[in-house]
Specification:
Elements lengths: L7 H4 L6 E6 L4 H17 L4 E6 L6 H6 L7 E5 L5 E6 L4 H12 L1
Parallel strand pairs: 1-2
Antiparallel strand pairs: 1-3, 3-4
Helix pairs in contact: 2-4
C-alpha cells in the first residue's frame, strides 16, 4: 500500500483531505490492519489523500515531530486546509476509521 500512497508533499498541496498513516515494517499491528486499510482506501481513495510514512525513515523526522507521533500505527486526519482534525493510535476498528473519514468529508 505504501507504493500506492500519495506523496507527502503532493498531499499537502492538492486541497484534498488527507490521512497520514505513520507505520513501521516491523509493526505487527500495522500489518494486521493492512486488509482493513486496503478496503477503506478502495472506498475513499479518490476523495482523500492516503499518505504512508515509515517512522524508521529519517526523511520523515519533521512530520513525525510535527504530528507528535507516539506509537504506530498512528492515523493523522487533516482537512482540506491541512488542519489536523483527529489522531488515532493503535489498532482501530474499520467502523471508527470510516466514521472519521465521513466527518472529514462532510
Amino acid at each position: 500500500m505504501a507504493k500506492q500512497s500519495v506523496p507527502y508533499d503532493v498531499a499537502l498541496s492538492n486541497n484534498k483531505p488527507t490521512v497520514i498513516e505513520f507505520y513501521a515494517d516491523w509493526c505487527t499491528t500495522c500489518q494486521s490492519m493492512a486488509p482493513i486499510l486496503n478496503k477503506v482506501h478502495q472506498q475513499y481513495g479518490k476523495t482523500v489523500n492516503w499518505v504512508m510514512l515509515n517512522i524508521d525513515d529519517p526523511q520523515w523526522a519533521k512530520p513525525i515531530e510535527k504530528y507528535r507521533v507516539t506509537g504506530v500505527p498512528q492515523f493523522t486526519f487533516l482537512d482540506s486546509n491541512q488542519q489536523e482534525t483527529e489522531i488515532l493510535v493503535g489498532k482501530i476498528p474499520e467502523t471508527i476509521i470510516t466514521k472519521v473519514l465521513q466527518e472529514l468529508l462532510s
